[in-house]
Design brief:
By secondary structure, this protein is an alpha+beta fold. It contains eleven helices and five strands, in the order E-E-E-H-H-H-E-H-H-H-E-H-H-H-H-H. 58% of the residues lie in helices and 9% in strands. Helix 2 crosses helix 4, helix 4 packs across helix 5 and helix 10 packs across helix 11.
Length: 292
């Protein structure tokens, strides 16, 4: 990962960009998510988690009024545990590195080395969330759930210090990383906001046709990467990226014909690849990436 622009190193709102090189050697330019955007996304996710907690308690209360008092407490405790410990992991695995909060704000999680976002990285970055956030908050707001009232004040002070360090780390980290990102080797970036997919999905005649064998060379992960490339803001750097990605795709699929416009070629390949993968999913054949 290469730093391209970092005008205000300590400014949480500064435009901070990083170049991530894929395993194929293609450099992709990403905007690192601001601390403010990450905080908003987390608050949205936390609100959804709390709403889920409230729903469970309503079920428990209804069970008590209905006379069922033997099962509701284990049910609620198990539900609370599962929601608290699997919410972020489930959605980031399901939605290519995005939770509902991240989707609303326009963020996603990437592998800092440029490869596909692995399941072990998602699990690792979210297991540390328990130590970073939930456990310290529980100790500070509901210490009776962790230890007795006899705990000395200095222990609570150390807990508060740990919570402050964990919360403020993105302000001082070069790439606004929290502890989970450092452990898992991930990076939270802003998804490009240029509305280009509508243009790609238009029913214009395709200038390039691809065989089924050529379309089998890639999977869902590569399709998402190509989507992000095509969505990106038009700059001289973006044009060079388009040319590099188009050359890699042609080499990978064995394209032997001449190409007049790299961007049109990639748009046609994107549309054909998406249709190919969607047909495969209808038949129960899901291809996560080119290695699957």
């Amino acid at each position: 990962m290469k730093a391209l622009r970092d005008p205000f190193e300590g400014n949480v709102g500064a435009a901070l960009q990083r170049e991530v090189v894929t395993p194929e050697g293609v450099p992709l330019l990403w905007s690192v998510a601001t601390v403010g955007d990450r905080a908003v996304a987390f608050v949205i996710d936390l609100a959804l988690v709390i709403a889920s907690f409230a729903g469970l308690w309503l079920v428990a209360v209804a069970a008590v009024f209905a006379g069922s008092t033997d099962w509701w407490l284990p049910f609620v405790l198990l539900g609370l545990f599962l929601i608290r410990n699997t919410y972020f992991t489930f959605f980031e695995l399901r939605w290519q590195g995005a939770t509902p909060g991240k989707r609303i704000v326009g963020l996603r999680v990437l592998d800092r080395r440029g490869g596909p976002l692995r399941a072990d990285a998602v699990v690792a970055r979210n297991l540390t969330r328990e130590l970073e956030t939930f456990l310290p908050l529980t100790v500070l707001l509901a210490p009776a759930q962790v230890w007795s009232d006899a705990v000395p004040g200095w222990v609570k002070g150390l807990t508060g210090l740990w919570l402050a360090v964990a919360a403020l780390l993105p302000l001082f980290s070069r790439d606004r990383l929290r502890i989970g990102d450092l452990v898992a080797g991930t990076l939270v970036v802003t998804r490009p906001r240029v509305a280009l997919l509508a243009d790609l999905a238009e029913s214009r005649p395709a200038r390039h046709e691809f065989t089924a064998g050529q379309l089998r060379a890639y999977g869902e992960y590569e399709l998402h990467v190509l989507e992000d490339v095509l969505r990106a803001e038009r700059t001289p750097e973006h044009r060079r990226t388009i040319a590099a990605v188009a050359a890699k795709v042609r080499e990978k699929i064995g394209w032997g014909e001449s190409v007049a416009d790299d961007e049109v070629f990639l748009a046609d390949f994107y549309a054909a690849e998406r249709a190919h993968l969607e047909r495969g999913m209808l038949l129960g054949k899901r291809r996560a990436d080119k290695h699957a």
